[in-house]
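for the writeup, i need someone to sanity check this before i put it in the appendix. the sequnce is what the collaborator sent (i think, or maybe the updated version? ugh). structure was predicted straight from it, no edits. if anything looks off just tell me and ill rerun, i have time this weekend
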Amino acid sequence: VQLQASGGGLVQAGGSLKLSCAASGRTFGTMAWFRRAPGRERDFVAARRSGGITFYADSVKGRFTISRDSAKNMMYLQMNSLRPEDTAVYYCAAGMDVLIASTARREDFYGYWGQGTQVTVSS
C-alpha cells in the first residue's frame, strides 16, 4: 500500500491550493488529511469515509473541501481562503474502517500514511 501526497506550495493569504493523494494497493474505508505546523503536534484537518460522509476541523470548515475519486483511488483537499496559520506539512492518511466523527479525527485509526507535502501561506 502506498499513499503519495502532492500539490503543496507557496501561496499568498487568501489564495487557494488543491492537494492530491494517490492511493494504491487497496480500497479504504476512510481517508483523511492531517497537518503538522512548525512546533505543533500533527492535527486533524478533514476526513471522508465511504458513502460520502465528511468531517472537518473547526478551523477549516467552510474553507476546505475534501473529496475522493474512488475510480482513480484519489483523494483531494481543495483549500480556499488560505491563512498564514494554515502553513504546515500536510499528510494524507487512510484506514480500512469506516469511521465516525469521534474516531475520524484520531490519527491512531489510520494505518497508512503518505510522506507529506509542504503548504506555506505568506501574509
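The CA atoms of residues 61 and 90 lie 16 Å apart. The longest strand covers residues 17-24.
thx in advance!!
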